[in-house]
Amino acid sequence: MLRPLALTIGEPAGIGPDLTLAVWQNRSQLSLPPFYVLGDAQFLARRAKLLGLDIPVATADPSTAAETFATSLPVVSIDRPITAEPGRPDGSSAPAAIEAIRRGVADVLRGAAAAVVTNPIAKNVLYKSGFQEPGHTEYLAKLVEEMTAVVSQPVMLLWSPELAVVPVTIHLPLKDVPAALTTDLLVRTGRIVAHDFRTRFGIARPRLVLAGLNPHAGEEGAMGSEDAAVVEPAVKQLQAEGIDVRGPLPADTMFHPAARARYDVALCTYHDQALIPIKTLAFDDAVNVTLGLPFVRTSPDHGTAFDIAGSGRADPSSLIAALRLAARLSERAAAPAAVGR
Fold first, then answer.
1. Alpha carbon distance 164, 37 (integer Å)
2. Which domains does the chain have, with CATH numbers?
3. What angle do CA 150, 155, 158 make, to 5 degrees?
4. Where are the alpha helices (DSSP H) in 251-316?
5. Of 19, 42, 113, 215, which one has the greatest count of Cβ atoms within 10 A?
């Protein structure tokens, strides 16, 4: 039986619903894998009408979603009515976004879905509701532990055909990064990245590079000691384990075309060091992938864009890329590794 992808509603007041409807409407031309939406069918029907889209919305369950997908947008109910209007989150926003993620994880863990694809969330809306996790990545790991008793280290990967980057520390103020960046964290992250690039991306021997924390990777201690004291030992340990890795490298010379050709994925020491180059190179079609989990999860690499929600002007390119990559990675997970990116 063909397992569909589970697509969460995300922040209902954002552009996630708009993108979902637009993508389904063009499913045949885009040759997309079947998916179902975890959300509220009546809400999506109202949004389609607002956008002037003639899209049939059907209540379904994961077992019938692939068949339904050909003629109607299949929606698996999260049993929470959604009332938010475009650009205006309300009391239904956070509960719907959180429940959709929880249900998506449950579906993929029980084998009903091939992978989870998450529409953008608004962290400030979730925080106001009492949500305790920094973001999607950390919440996914918490759900896995709750549902399986398996503790995992989630790793955020931003992927595009031009560049793949991993922020080793994620949602932290810059002043807190040096204390959080440890040799152990770098080693554990490097192992997960190497493993998932072999098993999911099909690269037999992935080439990793580690960026330095300081300008010029510390300039031999003249611009900080962290690169010699923290990053270099991590590189040596990963190399001793047989992982192809180099570093620490000066971040300012890692992302031009000739440099990118020499590695498959760059591990960066903090959030913006990773996200600035990939959003410069691939703003419209980069994909957020969570590594280190027992299932595939992808997401568009953009936010909720409240200012254009409900206008029909949102670009679906990143969601299209996220759906395609989720299908590819879930199919490749058990396939033999191949040489080359």
1. 27
2. 1-152+294-341 (3.40.718.10), 162-281 (3.40.718.10)
3. 145
4. 257-260, 271-281
5. 113
Q: Report the alpha-carbon distance of residue 18 to residue 149 in Å, rounded.
A: 36
How is residue 34 written in tokens?
Answer: 């079947």
Can you read off the two tokens belonging to residue 282?
A: 């691939």
Q: Compute φ and ψ for 94, nearest 5 degrees.
A: -65, -45
Rounded Cα distance between 47 and 11, Å, is: 13
Q: Is 98 exposed, middle or buried (0-12, 13-18, 19+ CB in 10 A)?
A: buried
Alpha-carbon dihedral angle through residues 136, 139, 143, 144, given to the nearest 10 degrees: 80
Closest CA to 227 of 239, 214, 237: 214
What is the bridge-based pairing of β-strands 57-59 and 73-77? parallel
AA letter at 257: P
Average pLDDT of the segment spanning 312-326: 95
Per DSSP, 34 falls in state P
What span, in angstroms and rounded, lies between the C-alpha atoms of 290 and 119? 14
Distance between CA atoms of residues 117 and 105, nearest Å: 10
Convert the pLDDT of each residue in 234-250 to its tens digit. 999 999 999 999 999 99
Q: Output the six-digit token pair for 33.
A: 């894998």
Closest CA to 7 of 147, 81, 71, 103: 103
What is the pTM assigned to this prediction? 0.90
Task: Report how far residue 320's alpha carbon sits from residue 59's, in angstroms, rounded to the nearest whole number.
Answer: 22
- Report the distance separating Cα 301 and Cα 319, nearest Å: 8
Are 329 and 297 contacting, i.e. CB atoms less than 8 angstroms apart?
no
How many residues does the structure list for the chain? 341
